[in-house]
Write a structure and sequence with these properties.
Number of strands: 14
Shape: globular
Helix content: 25-40%
Length: 343
């Protein structure tokens, strides 16, 4: 029998909105109840934009042949079926932007009605219903919608800053943990290798430099993305390579002067990059997997097969600063601002 304490905590976690399977928490649940009215331990948001995570957006674009109408239909289908934007093929979601419309009477420290906020907890656990997918650009993971979301008491959120472009702020909030975690893991003067030069990769590179890292190496299959971070001084060594080909990627990085990494940050949106990450990391180094495309069984077994002693960490999207460090880094790093605006 559940106690009143357990029931209250379950409501704070949003577990009361789980429809299936019984007993699940919102993130792994198959389906959530996204109907009103607002409940005591949550607040309601009038949603205007979804920022889909890179892995999910790539999957939706590829399965829809980059057709905006088909992409919109797929997003609507997922939300309608699951009560949340939880891509069943990638097990990932993103964040949402909107305006607070109503607050439950037992929510701990809520925003005020009328505040514009970003739902920092993943869309894979956020109850959401959509009236319309207004606009999809196959080149931009920020999708305009009309909908309603419910944010539980234990789910993180952040205010929309008024001193940064909206698109930049939303992109940073979506990946802010990459910056905060990279900063925490840096050993001054240590070599850092960032796999992926998208938003999260640029933020990780800037954070590594800010924390006093030594040689900064960026690797991506997209030559234009590598050229950009090199030109802006976000890395010391830029390498264009297919990270799904571990031996070729290793040869390319070493050939360009990239040393074994004390810290490797994986922020790619492609699968099968785990062996490359381990090969590029010193046996005494650390690999931070901050990618929803990661297969953790592959990572563990690859390290086993290589006799690698590298420490491997799972990068949660949440850190206690809830985006404050990443936003501050953007404010005081012109190169990072330009890089994010160019993406």
């Amino acid at each position: 029998m559940k106690t009143s304490h357990t029931l209250g905590y379950a409501q704070q976690l949003g577990a009361g909105r789980v429809l299936a399977p019984p007993g699940a928490l919102p993130q792994p649940a198959d389906r959530l109840d996204a109907c009103g009215p607002v409940r005591p331990y949550e607040f309601e948001v009038d949603v205007e934009r979804l920022c889909l995570d890179s892995t999910s957006f790539r999957n939706i674009r590829e399965r829809s042949d980059a057709d905006p109408a088909r992409m919109a239909a797929r997003i609507f289908e997922v939300v309608e079926q699951r009560g949340k934007m939880h891509n069943p093929e990638t097990d990932s979601g993103g964040v949402a932007l909107g305006t607070v419309t109503e607050v439950g009477e037992r929510y701990g420290d809520p925003p005020a009605p009328g505040d514009r906020i970003v739902t920092l907890a993943s869309l894979t656990l956020t109850p959401l219903r959509l009236e319309e997918v207004v606009r999809v650009d196959p080149a931009d993971p920020q999708v305009e919608v009309r909908g309603t979301a419910y944010v539980a008491d234990r789910s993180a959120w952040g205010p929309v800053p008024d001193d940064l472009p909206l698109a930049t702020a939303l992109a940073v909030y979506d990946v802010y943990g990459a910056g905060s975690l990279t900063k925490e893991l840096i050993h001054e003067g240590g070599a850092v290798c960032v796999l992926g030069a998208g938003h999260a990769g640029k933020l990780a590179l800037a954070a590594a430099k800010d924390a006093g890292a030594g040689t900064l190496v960026a690797v991506d299959v997209d030559g234009a993305a590598i050229e950009l971070v090199e030109r802006l001084g976000l890395c010391d060594v830029g390498v264009t390579a297919d990270l799904r080909d571990p031996l070729a990627a290793l040869e390319a990085v070493r050939g360009a002067g990239g040393p074994p990494a004390d810290l490797t940050v994986v922020v790619v949106n492609a699968t099968h990059c785990e062996p490359t990450a381990i090969l590029l990391t010193a046996d005494t180094g650390t690999v931070l997997f901050f990618s929803m495309a990661t297969n953790f069984s592959t990572a563990a077994l690859s390290a086993d097969g290589m006799s690698s002693g590298a420490r491997m960490l799972v990068g949660s999207g949440y850190t206690p600063d809830v985006g404050a460090y990443a936003l501050d880094l953007v404010r005081r790093t012109p190169a990072l601002r330009e890089a994010l605006a160019t993406a």
